[in-house]
User: Fold these one by one.
Assistant:
Number 1:
Amino acid sequence: MSALPAGFYARTTVAVARELLGHRLVSTVGGRRCAVRIVETEAYVGPDDPACHAYAWHRSARNEVMYGRPGLLYVYFTYGMHWCANIVTERSGYPAAVLLRGGEPVEGVEVMRRRRRGVPDEEIASGPAKLAQALGITGALDGHSVTRPPLWVEAGEPVGPRRRAAARRVGVRRGATDRLRFYERGSRHVSRPRDSRG
DNA sequence: CTTGAGATGTTT
DNA sequence: AACATCTCAAGA
């Protein structure tokens, strides 16, 4: 088990969001191992980002983990039924994170099929809440370090710059024009195949 | 393939 | 009232 070191996340949020593509997110939640190859992320770059939960240094019980160490998991509950998972970036005290938006199942696919009953493999983790569900991520993991079990990132084959695409973030109004969504070109495991505008 | 509505609870 | 979403049903 060679987890990426916490230092990987102690860099600019955009760099982390880009370079996370291709690495593996591994889960042993519930005792069964499964993993996805990360193919889609979004950067929430901090207090100056209107779409960020910590915009203008907003701080609350929900986003407290964003103010912690890089490499911690920030899990939040949204739309009354979905969990979404981020990895905290930058330095301690500076609230920024990368949202994990899309993954390609590469290990323990049966486990994920059970959690995502009835959906084709392309849709097992093609969206932030789908990915969280597939890997068994809930609020119980809020604040967990992604350098160790039961959820961590393992080094994989990075997706090179030519095979990466940048697009507008999904589902945000403020800060909607920024191209802070990154995904692997041509992947069938991203939440949306193309950006609706530029 | 596309679009639109409803589910459902927390945060502002 | 909005929300970093998803699923299903209906239509083209």
Number 2:
Amino acid sequence: MTRLEDVLDRIRERGGRVTVPRRVIIDAMLGAGEHVTADDLAARVQAEHPDIHLSTVYRCLDTLTELGVVTHVHLGHGPAVYHLADHPHMHVVCESCGEVVEVPDDLLDGVARRLASEVGFTLDPTHFALVGRCRRCAAP
Amino acid sequence: MTRLEDVLDRIRERGGRVTVPRRVIIDAMLGAGEHVTADDLAARVQAEHPDIHLSTVYRCLDTLTELGVVTHVHLGHGPAVYHLADHPHMHVVCESCGEVVEVPDDLLDGVARRLASEVGFTLDPTHFALVGRCRRCAAP
DNA sequence: TTAGCTGCAAAAGGTTTGCAAATTA
DNA sequence: TAATTTGCAAACCTTTTGCAGCTAA
């Protein structure tokens, strides 16, 4: 369970500045569930701080990603979703209803090994989502 | 190895019309390698038929997808890539240099089984790409 | 003080859409 | 002829960027 102060400390450690937008954005991520888009985040943040611009949200998310405290995932279509990098995991998204499910990050360990030895490819399994159909949306 | 006529027949069977843009686009896909973006395709097509518009390419690709003769894949960032649906396969893309590698479509069979039984999720493994780093781009 | 941020406005990249004219069956 | 499809222009959505002013250290 990540705390705001831990993240701020990390920013300072790495020579970054602790600014109002950064503090507020991280706070919003702590408050939000998983799978927040930049736009979601901007809306949450702007409820209290209307002048924090969407482009600032993107820039902060970038910085926080470089600092290793935030990650994003590309679902098939649609915008990327962001979350704190406190517990690595993969995402599975339903291509029909858009539901996103979290699954253990070691799900692809076997595949990663095969790819490494057969194709020389180092998998980055938390950076993309598996796509398919959830129980509700699958056939009959 | 798919032939132009097979695809055209399929369009007719399904009640679609065989138009110049559709014929030319399919032909371009047969000529192109794998991993063509809509934009690539428009450029190829426009070399001979300058008035086939990019939006027509998108619309034809949509139709052809519904007819089951074309598929597309979302690489992490960047545009989707299209190919004929003649031999199902997965894609692995390097997040650094963008290189795309084709891998067997049964690579995720084990994962698909686990997801089906544990989460009730039916994987659609050819609709997204695995992301990571190719040998050249992986560390030193 | 000054390097590093932010707000704003504008653009860029990929894709979709409305509509009238052209084309297929 | 009637229903689809196309060309074009314009919109859309997500993300990025240039720049002048602001702010944390």
